[in-house]
Fold this sequence. Notes:
Layout: H1 3-12, H2 22-25, H3 27-38, E1 43-47, E2 56-62, E3 65-71, E4 77-81, E5 95-98, E6 102-103, E7 110-111, E8 117-119, E9 136-142, E10 145-149, H4 158-168, E11 176-186, H5 190-197, H6 203-206, H7 226-238, E12 246-248, E13 251-256, E14 287-292, E15 296-300, E16 305-314, E17 317-327, H8 338-363, H9 379-400
Antiparallel strand pairs: 1-10, 2-3, 2-5, 3-4, 4-9, 6-7, 7-8, 9-10, 11-17, 12-13, 13-14, 14-15, 15-16, 16-17
Helix pairs in contact: 5-8, 5-9
Amino acid sequence: MDLGQISAQLRARPAGHSLPQPFYTDADFFDFDLAAIFGRSWLFVGFEIELREPGDYLSLTIGHWPILVMRGRDGVLRGFHNSCRHRGSLLCEPGAGHAARIVCPYHRWTYGLDGKLLAAGRMPDDFDKGGHGLNPVNLEIVAGAILVCLADTPPPLDTMRRDLTPLLAPQNFAHAKLAHQSVLVEQANWKLVMENARECYHCATGHPELSRTFPVNASAYFDIDPEASRAFEERIAALALPMGPAGEDWWQAVRFPLNEGTVAMTMDGQFNVAKLMCDAGGGDTGSMRWAIEPNVFCHSTSEYTFAFTAMPISPTETHVVSKWLVHEDAVEGIDYSIETLTDLWTRTNLQDKELAENNQRGIFSPGYTPGPYSPDAESLTIRLVDWYCATARRYLDEAGA
């Protein structure tokens, strides 16, 4: 890739504007994103409760890179590159699974749940199995969320761990379960998917169902009517629940109120799950929104957590992975149904898919130039794109050095 061209395009972007065209369309710029952004950031891949037992694993692909997360026999979660140390074959197909050992489907090299090579048939007597274990990936657990980083030296997590953990503690993730997961294929660059996900400028007309409960006209960072905000803050303080806001340039979290007369982020604004994750105040506690750059946002309400992750596939394709957590004691068909649990966000995702794909088609126009964001309605989008540009410049500076 031509780093000089990428640097020049970054310099050409006016402050407070969208990115120049190649950042959304060009294969070299996409490869740059993988190296500069996804290859160096902490990335959310799921929840600790998805891997309860030794041998449980998650296999996923980040850009071009296959990753494996496994719980060992000692109960520890570890991350590995999903690539056999023999000739590089993929060890586990994408998805969730369970295995006593990891066996390469090609030549049957066999690994323990700690990544150590256990067996490699027909190798010479002096072959060192100890030097051919799976290559590790940095992995950390923060407030029940699994984060991985592919960089040799990952960014520090101390502030996030300190400040996000108490905000998510009332959600009771230790006693949650994954109720449903979906994958939506969008023909749009991952940045367009996330720019859309970081603002609600489009929500009043683009998401009529979400608008029933979500304060779509809030300014900046969930700034709502001062009187309503004051009443909500007093009620939440009386329940001894944390509110935030908290964050750094690459993550943020805050509790905000839902629209008057609603208590849940559902189609009718009422609870659709009988067993709540957090029953403080009868469950009327708004939503704790937490988001991690470059590609995640979550809403943790009293009855569920919804997690949205945009996985980059190509310059013009993104896979949106959605997860819904509910209380582990909630029984499907009795306490909730998958249809009602997922209805609101599934509709919202499909509406956003149409908007992002339309945005992508328009950006291919020779008449496209970077346009100005609304500081009032798109402040979090500005924050995302500014973070992207700053992170990209740091990578370029280090590459130049």
